[in-house]
Amino acid sequence: MEMDSLSNGNNTTATASTPATVSPDSSAATARATPTPPPSSTGPQLTEALKLEHQFLRVPFEHYKKTIRANHRAVEKEVSAVISGVTDAASADFSPDDAVNHLNSLVSRLQGLKRKLEEGSRAENLQAQKCRARLDHLESADGENLSEWNSTRLKRILVDYMLRMSYYDTAVKLAECSNIQDLVDIDVFQEAKKVIEALQNKDVAPALAWCADNKSRLKKSKSKLEFQLRLQEFIELVRAENNMRAITYARKYLAPWGATHMKELQRVLATLAFKRDTECATYKVLFEAKQWDFLVDQFKQEFCKLYGMTMEPLLNIYLQAGLSALKTPYCYKDDCTKEDPLSQEAFRTIAMPLPYSKQHHSKLVCYITKELMDTENPPQVLPNGYVYSTKALEEMAKKNDGRITCPRTGSEYNYTELVKAYIS
Amino acid sequence: MELSTIKDAFDRVTKKQKLSSAKTQEMLDQIRQEIESALDKMQSANNSDPEHNYKAVLNELKANLLKIAPLSQMEGTQKELNVALSKYGKLLEKYFNPDISKAYRNIDVDIHTLNQIIANHFYRQELFDIGDHFVSVVGEPESASTMKAPFLEMYQILEAIKNQNLEPALNWASMNSDKLAQSGSDIVLKLHSMQFVKILQNGTRDEALHYARTHLSPFASSHMAEIQKLMACLLWTGKLDRSPYHALLSGSNWDKLAEDLKREFCNLLGQSYNSPLSVTVAAGVQVLPPLLKFMNVMAGKKQEWQTMNQLPVPVELDREFQFHSIFVCPVSKEQATEDNPPMLMSCGHVLCKQSILKMSKNHTKMFKCPYCPFDIDAVQCRQLYF
């Protein structure tokens, strides 16, 4: 397959009309309605469509890895504690009773760990199942059920949008009604929900806890989210005129970031000199409530990055691409067919700043039948320059004694006056 | 690479995970056993020199635990698991496109417009509860969801048809008879025909005849053949299943009628048959792969891309997405526009105006058609309107 054009079956047989179309004695009206579009069932096109689903597989996988990591850390910690407990008992001067008690406490600690581990194992298995369910779902897409699979995909995309915009309830409802709970990441976003809601209530604690949980990965991606959260806490202390505490706080939590983010640190520290109602622009902005919104955005970005999700909702990505693919100058005309999404005002608005589609081969659609005009159904030219398909013109002529009327200008001609056009 | 390869890789991951879990449990059990046996020893050695023995038991326990080395054993299986996890992750990145937002332009989308589109989509797809919930959550006014009322009506009519009740549909048809006649649709005839067949099955011949006289006769001139067929069915009132027209009783006719009605209903509403959101997203799915490939190859052009007026790669969408005629001049490879329309040459081939101007040196000389050896006079070329 060449890189620059994705060819499709251009002949009408590839997209065979379903029985629902034109009946032999139909009027022009039903002929006008387009056939129910059969989904693209060509192999390579389907493969390409599946390759867009990285996020679909990666998110539950990241979640799975995270659970495994967390469980392992817990085990390591407890086992180390137990072993050093034994070592301590061996070297210390315990009385016999104390030693027995000590060892018993270690045993119950181990039992507690074992229970926790079983729980953790169950969680891991559930998540592994989820990963596998998604792999199965991708495999299940084939020519037979493609329109349903596509419809599910749109629902998944909409749930993703709802979750990103924090419309959690709608997401849950949509997932439930279509039974796609395994195929969407509501549980992962619940984690984000806590942090976001706290931030919206000016509480950085859950966010900081999240940063601690994901410390190594955030460090690898050189994230400064933790720094920004700490800065905000500092600013809040200054706002409350708790300057002494602010300075202590800065010494403990902000100083470590000084090496890499000195400028920003200096700027924020300077707020100590100004007060919360300062009019100085540089510092006024730091005290604004908008800063919290900024933190929410930053968190969302880091969160998406960590889980291998795109920064933008999937809906926006697919919508933008689709609109561009459909956008032609003809879409904005008044007589644009209603079947074209770009005949709708809302879609036109969103598509305004987007690029037009590009095609390398002519594709001609008959104004009357909406069918393709190709070698099997060649275009014919009326004396007034308007072009229609042979099928449409033949049928018109048959019903009207060889006379045809141009539907757009009303001019009448004889079928014999038509000229064939040859378009590659 | 196929999905089966990826599935196998994931199976390896779960296998390693189970091994790791098992090893951890094993270690925990061993540690506990050691401690418990130490406790037993302590209890039994209660009588003879307790102090000295306790110390010895504890030291023995410490030594045993060191020998088992639970931490390093668990680390071993954990490492294997990590290798499998990493392999799987790399496989995902290799087979799938890790970042499909590469072609995304950072343009602000008016959130109200988008919410409107989403709400209307829900109503179109018969998800009325979810549509309502969404509208209330995002705080759009009721008026924004223009699609709710009409589609509610449509689905009510369709539901009735599913139960072979044509009343709502016939009411709708009579209320909109003018518009339907104007659009040249024959849905009204189809509805009445179906009702007629229903009466034939369940009612008397007189009822059927009366119905035909009232509702089918207006169509006699335009749909002669259809009407004749239906009239003939009168002979088999009540036993249509044994007539040559038994196909009229097939259940699939009801499905087809529902589909036709949906089509006409949407048409009258000035709406498309398919949800525009579905169509757009489906088109997006087709155009993204080549677009992303272009982005990957032309990494440097990212800045240019943000301001391009046209997609940089041509994409042939499926037939169902072709709503307009696009003429591409075979000579210049440019798409025809209002300023550069397609022109028909006397040989029957078509070029765009600018190509003809160029080839004829501004209408000054004759030129040969690039496809056939015809001599073309630029002045005689006619503009085409697709």
Tell me the distance between the termini of chain A. 21 Å
Main sheet overview of chain A = 3 strands, antiparallel
Structural class of chain A: mainly alpha
Shape of chain A: elongated
| Average of pLDDT of chain A | 85
Keywords (chain B): Coiled coil, Cytoplasm, Metal-binding, Zinc, Zinc-finger
Domain RING-type (chain B): 329-372
Zinc finger (RING-Gid-type) (chain B): 329-372
Subcellular location (chain B): Cytoplasm
Written account of the structure:
Chain B: Residues 21-48 form a coiled coil. Chain B: Residues 329-372 form the RING-Gid-type domain. Chain B: One of its GO terms (cellular component) is cytoplasm. Chain B: One of its GO terms (biological process) is proteasome-mediated ubiquitin-dependent protein catabolic process. The complex is a heterodimer of chains A (424) and B (386). Chain A folds into 4 domains: 53-183; 190-311, no CATH class; 315-352, no CATH class; 362-423, Zinc/RING finger domain, C3HC4 (zinc finger) (Herpes Virus-1), CATH 3.30.40.10. Chain A has helices at 28-32, 43-50, 54-91, 96-139, 146-164, 168-177, 186-200, 205-213, 215-220, 225-239, 243-254, 262-269, 281-287, 290-307, 314-326, 345-351, 390-399, and strands at 379-381, 387-389, 403-405, 412-414, 419-420. In chain A, helix 7 packs antiparallel against helix 14. In chain A, the strands form 2 sheets. Chain A has a 3-stranded antiparallel beta sheet with strand order 2-1-5. A two-stranded antiparallel sheet of chain A has the order 3-4. Chain A is mostly helical. The two termini of chain A are 21 Å apart. By secondary structure, chain B is mainly α. Chain B is 60% helix and 3% strand. Chain B has helices spanning 3-44, 50-68, 70-95, 111-124, 128-138, 148-162, 167-175, 177-182, 187-202, 205-216, 224-232, 251-269, 276-297, 302-305, 353-359; strands spanning 342-344, 350-352, 367-368, 375-376, 382-383. In chain B, 34% of the residues are buried. Classes of the chains: A mainly alpha (424), B mainly alpha (386).
